[in-house]
Amino acid sequence: MNRTTLSLIAGTAALAAVTGFAALTEPTAPATDTAKAAAVLPVERTGLLCPAPSSSDLAETTYTSFTPVTKGTGSDGTAELQSATGQSADAGSAADDEKKTAAKPVLTPKTPGTPVTGETSGGEAPALVGTAEGRFAPGWTLQETTQVAAGTGRGLLGVTCTAPDTEFWFPGVSTAADRTDYVHLTNPDDSAAVADIELYGKDGAVATTVGEGLTIPAHSSEPILLSTLTDEKQDDLTVHVNVRSGRVGAAVQALDDKLGGDWLAASTDPAGSLVVPGIPKDATAVRLVAFAPDDADADLKVQLASASGLITPAGQETLRVKAGMTTAVDLGDITRGEPGSLVLTPTDRSVPVVAAVRVVRGKGEKQESAFIPATSPVGTRASAADNGAKNATLSLTAPQGTAKVKVTASAGSGGGTTASQTYTIKSGTTQDVQLPVPAGLKGTYALTVEPLTDTPVYASRTLTQTIGGVPGFTIQTLPDDRGTVAVPKADEDLTVLQK
What we know:
The chain is mostly beta strands. The protein is 6% helix and 48% strand.
């Protein structure tokens, strides 16, 4: 007699703990029973994808890896970041084995709690695939930061490397004559991925020539120039990446002839209310771009969570976003010397939308631009890597009520000891907090944000650096790091005896 053990709940729970991409609950149980049955465990494996940083020969790129210390992890684990093109499918051939052996990691983290950096230069740097297991997996974050001294897209470009997924929304792209925008799609898996790229402008869907059925080979990355997909020249477009088969990481590189360039990360999933956190206090121009993917129009109330509370910008009290169309509005220097965050809420019924803002700093020929997508709350915890002693600003906003937040500065990549500080963010406000800095800091450090109350907190981190007299900057949002997963306990013995 053969004994086959089938434990569906336990098996699914184990899968969640390994992948880190899902939080499972038992659908038939009441919420209170599920909470009692679920255990919150650290994820055991995760993956991140970094796009090719730049085609400029003048580009200088730094990668920074950081994993916060997480309770409940073991002492084992590994993490590394290596070229996407340096990997190969597991075909079992000697050539494949040799190729895998030859792939030298760009960086290999040594211990959680301390950042590790790696560098590349020039325009030939490839996209990178990162994997982390064991103690390195929970909350793992990778920052890609690039300096470009001159040319189209010059300035400071930054992006948080993303987990693979199957759908992405990018409001704020352009096919205008002065813009060169690429959608970077990176495939981490052993088989090819197939994706569609859809464009939506002010009048609805934009006809594309080769946007359907794009193949991204295994362990590779494809930058797709948006202007090759359509002959239409529009200032404000929304890109929808829909993956038919497989998974990809996606990010948009937006390069401007006069306003520099930066990465546009994907907006949070379509929702009735959105928050765009951390518009710099010295922003000289802010442009809001929104899109409603469903069949109904969205009427949104536009507010700014300022340092003193929620205010409504004069003349821009509401925004109507027609179904299937991209809507853009100039908000000027809306922050007026104070940090702020945009809060978009429905005026009547809730209709899902996506949104992002383009921010400009500087004047005349010395202007630089960056993007902030709408994002989800910090949740349990989030981290931002690659902070210097004087070049980082952390913005926190609590639109729905007063919140307390703990911010921890890690040890430096070259030395130093951790430091932390707790802040109170008043309801409806945005604060640029005075950051704790590691004592004896050498190198760069990471910031970890942990809300101490149930009130939703949204966050973004701004890096600044003057490059050739231009005020270079880049902004990354801090959604939840998905470092833990709720794992239901099996209440029943689902063992089956098979003869």
